[in-house]
Amino acid sequence: MVVTDLFAAKDYHLHVDEPFAVMALCPQHRFRLKTAFPERYHTYVRTIADDRSEYMTWLMSASSILSELGRWREGTGDGPAWPLKNVELAPPN
To answer: What domain of life does the UniProt record list for this protein's source (predicted)?
Structure first.
């Protein structure tokens, strides 16, 4: 599925963990996100940064991706700090 705006759907929280897990696994790359819903982006990032159970749920998404790639050992640490340093929200046009 191609999503042009990760935060456009009302149920964005159901499909946004996986793209963020991929971005977290690629710290050598920078990701610039454009969205018409910056408040949803900020809510998502704050929720994971502030709520340990939400962070653990997100970490499970990342761990499943690592497992598929044969890199499961990398999913055993504390994980990345949030907000992700390699992800930024592009300014509105």
So the answer is: Bacteria
Assess if residue 16 is contained within a domain. Answer: no
Residue 71: inside a domain = yes
Find the DSSP H helices in the chain: 17-24, 38-50, 52-68
In this predicted model, what pLDDT tens digit does every residue of 14-59 receive, in sequence order? 889 889 988 988 899 999 999 999 999 999 999 988 988 888 888 8
**Does the residue 10 lie in any domain?**
no
Q: Which amino acid is at 93?
A: N
Residue 52 lies in a domain: yes
Tell me the pTM: 0.79
